[in-house]
Task: inverse folding
């Protein structure tokens, strides 16, 4: 009940303020913007699939930072760094592998470093005090991707290999993504933002190594790979700071 | 002018992004999920089936031995001795009271599978068989350093009483005994196998027990070279049984002999696992350093045996130089401790 009242109050304030709203595309020109954010991460269907071509990923989290310099007309360029972590569906993996025991360390971890093209559309509600900004960002760059460390144990009477260990190899790939959202700027300096972000589906190979140990202690090693779409999407919440507006 | 700069910046960014897109590693591999490594465990496999007859006249007691690979789960051994009797022991003994040619079969099974092997024993049809003594042995921990424990395996046939003489005063009457040799030496082990009718056969084998290996530390080396090598850049490389041990720093002696001390040895300064009874070689390569570009020049190579370096006094002066021209004033003093 209280929540509804708060939402209603905010909407009322916004409607009231919009009556004085001014669209100003040059509002943040020649300014820098540093944004720190984190949020949820949802794997693509292929990533969370538990079939023979699936990757057994589960929901995770993301966090990162963006820096953009707005050149003119709300248009800016910048860079971003982001860390993503998707959990691993170890229950389904153990079921499909028929392993007696499973030990998983970590999840799918990915770090992204990219460049941005940024467009910012400010709606000034109260000059010097409160501005709502809509923004869209296109980014592309390089992405590292690692699998979790998985150790399976089998019954010696059911499987030749009593221990199977999967370990990640170094994997680097490119990515293209975009995000869009809304920013609330206070006193022309700091603000909060909420955004939706995703990366465009593209298929990549993730290399890993496997160590197999049989019941007699003989060890075999081999290299293998996963190949599928590694895209994901999520919502980010964060704070940002505007540089260069006040001198 | 400013507009041009802005335009350049705006064009530059998409170009960088395009370059990164080119760098994107679009794999051509087919779609692949996780690979599970499942394979049927191997069934038991009989690799060896042997028998030992422990009498030279009927009734013949026979001990059977099997070696089986892939021992997993609950192993069941089923021996069929060919005379209607069976056993589930791993290595059973069965007494054949009547003469005949028997075919013995062994079936080994577990939850995974079964393997079968058979053994024909025509000698069980003979009124007597010759007594043959034989044995093999194995060093405990696979080394022969004193004190050393040795396990003996009896491979005799036709005998049922055994007398072991181990060569160091020790004796035993077990079928397959073990013995501990306290000191190094060469021992002659004798086994006599005797049948119930009194006939016997003897065999001997030599057992070699070596003293414990030691670590020989090099305190210093004095090297005497012809005066023509004065002010040359000299250093020594050390080898133990062709194994590189280390080398000294480079010295430019203005006179000889030149001394290389402990602190002058860069990597190591000891010979490890020296067995003084073995035919080991300790090699000292005296080299002239020719700088970083040209390889060093070998001046002299001095080889010592382990007996040579087993000094009973300190220091030992060694003059016998091999593999070098006969120059009287080349020698090497080796200062050692253990």
Result:
């Amino acid at each position: 009940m209280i929540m509804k009242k708060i939402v209603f109050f905010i909407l009322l304030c916004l409607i009231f303020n919009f009556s004085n709203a001014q669209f100003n595309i040059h509002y943040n020109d020649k300014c820098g913007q540093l944004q720190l954010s984190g949020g949820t991460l949802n794997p693509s269907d292929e990533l969370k699939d538990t079939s023979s071509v699936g990757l057994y990923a589960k929901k995770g989290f993301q966090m990162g930072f963006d820096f953009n310099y707005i050149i003119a007309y709300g248009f800016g360029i910048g860079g971003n760094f982001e860390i993503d972590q998707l959990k691993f569906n170890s229950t389904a993996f153990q079921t499909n592998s028929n392993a007696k025991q499973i030990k998983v360390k970590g999840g799918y971890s990915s770090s992204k470093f990219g460049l941005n093209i940024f467009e910012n559309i400010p709606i000034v509600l109260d000059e010097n005090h409160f501005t709502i900004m809509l923004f869209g960002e296109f980014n592309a760059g390089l992405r590292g991707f690692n699998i979790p460390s998985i150790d399976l144990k089998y019954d010696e009477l059911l499987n030749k290999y009593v221990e199977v260990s999967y370990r990640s190899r170094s994997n680097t790939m490119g990515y293209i993504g975009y995000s869009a959202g809304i920013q609330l700027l206070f006193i022309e300096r700091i603000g909060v933002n909420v955004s939706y972000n995703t990366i465009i589906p593209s298929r990549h190979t993730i290399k890993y190594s496997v160590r197999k140990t049989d019941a007699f202690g003989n060890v075999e090693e081999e290299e293998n790979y996963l190949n599928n779409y590694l895209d994901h999407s999520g919502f980010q919440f964060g704070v940002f700071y505007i540089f260069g507006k006040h001198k | 002018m400013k507009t041009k700069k802005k335009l350049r910046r705006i064009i530059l960014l998409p170009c960088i992004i395009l370059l990164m897109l080119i760098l994107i590693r679009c794999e051509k591999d087919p779609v692949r999920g996780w690979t599970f490594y499942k394979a049927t465990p191997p069934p038991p496999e009989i690799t060896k089936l042997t028998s030992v007859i422990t009498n030279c006249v009927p009734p013949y007691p026979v001990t059977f031995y099997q070696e089986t690979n892939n021992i997993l789960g609950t192993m069941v051994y089923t021996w069929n001795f060919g005379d209607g009797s069976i056993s589930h022991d791993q290595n059973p003994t069965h007494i054949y009271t009547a003469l005949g040619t028997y075919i013995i079969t062994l079936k080994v099974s577990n939850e995974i599978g079964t393997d079968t092997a058979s053994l024909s024993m025509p000698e069980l049809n003979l009124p007597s068989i010759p007594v043959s003594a034989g044995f093999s042995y194995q060093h405990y921990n696979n080394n022969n350093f004193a004190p050393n424990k040795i396990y003996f395996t009896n491979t005799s046939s036709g005998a049922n009483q055994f007398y072991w003489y181990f060569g160091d005063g020790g004796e035993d009457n077990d079928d397959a005994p073990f013995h501990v040799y306290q000191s190094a030496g060469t021992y002659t082990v004798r086994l006599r196998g005797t049948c119930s009718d009194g006939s016997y056969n003897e065999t001997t084998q030599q057992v070699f027990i070596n003293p414990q290996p030691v670590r020989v530390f090099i305190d210093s080396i004095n090297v005497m070279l012809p005066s023509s090598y004065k002010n040359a850049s000299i250093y020594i490389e050390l080898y133990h049984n062709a194994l590189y041990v280390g080398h000294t720093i480079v010295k430019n002696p203005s006179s000889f002999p030149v001394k290389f001390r402990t602190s002058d040895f860069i990597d190591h300064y000891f010979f490890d696992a020296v067995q003084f009874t073995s035919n080991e070689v300790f090699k000292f390569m005296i080299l002239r350093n020719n700088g970083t570009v040209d390889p060093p020049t070998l001046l002299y190579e001095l080889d010592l045996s382990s007996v040579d370096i087993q000094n009973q006094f300190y220091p030992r002066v060694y003059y016998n130089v091999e593999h070098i021209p006969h120059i009287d004033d080349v020698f090497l003093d080796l200062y050692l401790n253990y």
Observations:
- Chain B touches chain A through 34 residues (CB under 8 Å).
- The domain at 45-125 of chain B is CATH 2.60.40.10 (Immunoglobulin-like).
- Chain B has three domains: 45-125, 135-209, 214-337.
